[in-house]
Each structure stands twice: as structure tokens, then as C-alpha cells.
């Protein structure tokens, strides 16, 4: 019998099935700016209506949260996570997401699983008025075990040059407002899996994996609701490294983000991990978002308006003068 690509472990037909399962749904994310469709070598997106546009891009994956999804055979939220980790980053600069591309790698492709992951991306793109205009599925036996998947994404957004938010306007007296997270989002799962090895155990009346797999919150609508009404000095997406690493990224020299940790509403699952794993509180804040998915920095006079615009937002600190860029009173 002669060798074939399929005998080497790559089933092209399964790839075609994946495309068939997602093609209609992906097309529903397109708008008049998308000039071609799935199947081309490149994706075309026309830009118009801006005076001095700047493209803002971001790329990311979902880390070992994938392991929880694969072991629990729950794949629908992972696509949302992939999109959110990319799109939430570009929101920090005031950008509106235009289009998204994905990359899905595996050992042996299952069109049902692949389609479920991509359809999660489709749902997230629709929620953010963003077009899913392309992607790549790579079946790589020998690199990945059968049943293993990895996923990554790439998002491009746009903002007028004079409306870029980069933290340069942050000054003493500004207030720091927290937007709650939906849980761990997609960070710290190597530690999560070490402390919680059994995803089937019960937590607060349901299997633990249901809590762990709650998708990363999408902040597009919230952030742009605020930007349209209030001048925002800075925005930070709280991902890997927690508050300690992400807030200083927007704080200028000589300024300090002074945060009262007692005001932060920490999710019960994180408190359980801290207790069960014997994890120090400082390590928790240096690894997880601790319930704060994003922060916005605004003038004190605008703080109440932001809190009114966003029902679940709350103030956690202010900008002061100081040598260290963040001071977290734990």
C-alpha cells in the first residue's frame, strides 16, 4: 500500500468538514468593509471614515485553560477567551476592533471540536462588532497528541491618532475604577490546575469546571460607553501578572497607582484557591486578576459619571506622586 498524507496522520477531509461547519456563521460577522470571503490566500478589509487612523493590533492565546476545556470536553467558551484576550488588550488604547484571525493547531483534527471552538470566536466577534475574516487550522501529528489542541488569535483595531489612550495624561488625583472580571479569565491556569486537579469536583453546587471555564469578559461595550462620555486618561487590561504587572504599564515616572485592596471584590473561587493551595495573598495578586478585569483612570470629577455608566464598576484607588508605580495595600 502506498503512503498517503492521511496515512501519515493528516486527514484533509476533516479540515473541509470544519470549514463547512463554520462558513455560514463566520460570514455573519462580515460587514461591507470585508471585500472577500473564506478561501482566499489573504483577507481584505477596507478602511474608511477616519481622518488620521492608527491601527492597533494584539495577539494572544488562552494558555493552559485549554487543558481544563479538553479534559472536561467543553469547548464552546475557549473561542470567546481567545478573542477576548486579544480584543481587550487593544481596547486599552481606545481602539475599536475591526477584524480578527485565528490559528488552531492539533494532533488529530475533529471537525466537531474545531467548529465549536471557532463558533465561540464568532459569538465574541458579533458581540464586539468585529469581523472574523480568516484563520488557519494545522493538523500536526507528532507535534501534538491526539485530542490536544492549541489556539491563538490576532485582532486589529482602529483609533483616531488624536484619540489614542496611552496613559500619558494620567496625573495625581485621578481616580482608579475597577471593572469586575468574570473569574480567572485566561491567566494563571498552571497554578489553578495544580491546586484543583479534579475538575469534576463540586464547587458551589455545580462541577468545578463550569466555574473555571466561564469565558473572559468582553469589555468593548463598557469601555466605549465610557470613552464616548468621559475623557479617559488610562486603561489597563489585568491579565498575567495581575494588578502588580499590568497597571504600571500605563503609569508614568514619578506617579503611583495607590490601590486599597480591601475594596476589591475577590471571587469566591479565588479565595478557595488561596485557602486550599496555601497561596500567599501577595502571590495571588501577582498571578490572578483577583476580580478586576480592567481598570480605567479618570479625573476625580468624572468618577461618579463612570460609576453611573457602568453598573458594576467601583473605585479602588487613586493616582499619587511617588517613586514606585503601584502601591497595593493588602
UniProtKB/TrEMBL annotation:
Residues 171-324 form the PurM-like C-terminal domain. It catalyses: 2-formamido-N(1)-(5-O-phospho-beta-D-ribosyl)acetamidine + ATP = 5-amino-1-(5-phospho-beta-D-ribosyl)imidazole + ADP + phosphate + H(+). Pathway: Purine metabolism; IMP biosynthesis via de novo pathway; 5-amino-1-(5-phospho-D-ribosyl)imidazole from N(2)-formyl-N(1)-(5-phospho-D-ribosyl)glycinamide: step 2/2. The keyword Ligase applies. GO terms for cellular component: cytosol. GO terms for biological process: 'de novo' IMP biosynthetic process; adenine biosynthetic process. Gene3D superfamilies: PurM-like C-terminal domain (3.90.650.10), PurM-like, N-terminal domain (3.30.1330.10). Belongs to the AIR synthase family. This is Phosphoribosylformylglycinamidine cyclo-ligase. The gene is purM.
Amino acid at each position: 500500500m502506498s503512503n498517503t498524507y492521511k496515512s501519515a496522520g493528516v486527514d484533509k477531509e476533516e479540515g473541509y468538514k470544519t470549514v463547512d461547519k463554520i462558513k455560514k456563521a463566520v460570514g455573519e460577522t462580515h460587514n461591507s468593509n470585508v471585500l472577500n470571503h473564506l478561501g482566499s490566500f489573504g483577507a481584505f478589509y477596507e478602511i474608511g471614515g477616519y481622518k488620521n487612523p492608527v491601527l492597533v493590533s494584539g495577539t494572544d492565546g488562552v494558555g493552559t485553560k485549554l487543558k481544563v476545556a479538553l479534559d472536561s470536553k467543553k469547548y464552546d467558551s475557549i473561542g470567546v477567551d481567545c478573542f477576548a484576550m486579544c480584543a481587550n488588550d487593544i481596547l486599552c488604547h481606545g481602539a475599536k476592533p475591526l477584524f480578527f484571525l485565528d490559528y488552531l493547531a492539533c494532533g488529530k483534527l475533529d471537525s466537531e471540536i474545531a467548529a465549536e471552538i471557532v463558533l465561540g470566536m464568532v459569538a465574541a466577534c458579533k458581540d464586539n462588532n468585529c469581523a472574523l475574516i480568516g484563520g488557519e487550522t494545522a493538523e500536526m501529528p507528532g507535534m501534538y497528541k491526539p485530542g490536544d489542541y492549541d489556539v491563538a488569535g490576532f485582532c486589529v483595531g482602529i483609533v483616531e491618532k488624536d484619540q489614542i489612550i496611552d496613559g500619558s495624561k494620567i496625573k495625581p488625583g485621578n481616580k482608579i475604577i475597577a471593572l469586575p472580571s468574570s473569574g480567572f479569565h485566561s491567566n494563571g491556569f498552571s497554578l489553578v490546575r495544580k491546586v484543583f486537579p479534579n475538575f469534576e469536583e463540586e464547587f458551589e453546587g455545580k462541577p468545578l469546571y463550569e466555574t473555571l471555564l466561564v469565558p473572559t469578559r468582553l469589555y468593548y461595550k463598557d469601555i466605549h460607553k465610557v470613552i464616548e462620555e468621559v475623557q479617559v486618561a488610562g486603561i489597563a487590561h489585568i491579565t498575567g501578572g495581575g494588578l502588580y504587572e499590568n497597571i504600571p504599564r500605563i503609569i508614568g515616572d514619578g506617579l503611583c497607582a495607590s490601590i486599597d485592596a480591601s475594596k476589591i471584590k475577590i471571587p469566591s473561587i479565588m479565595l478557595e484557591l488561596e485557602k486550599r493551595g496555601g497561596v500567599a495573598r501577595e502571590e495571588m495578586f501577582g498571578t490572578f486578576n483577583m476580580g478586576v478585569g480592567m481598570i480605567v483612570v479618570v479625573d476625580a470629577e468624572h468618577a461618579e459619571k463612570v460609576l453611573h455608566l457602568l453598573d458594576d464598576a467601583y473605585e479602588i484607588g487613586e493616582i499619587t506622586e511617588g517613586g514606585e508605580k503601584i502601591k497595593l495595600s493588602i
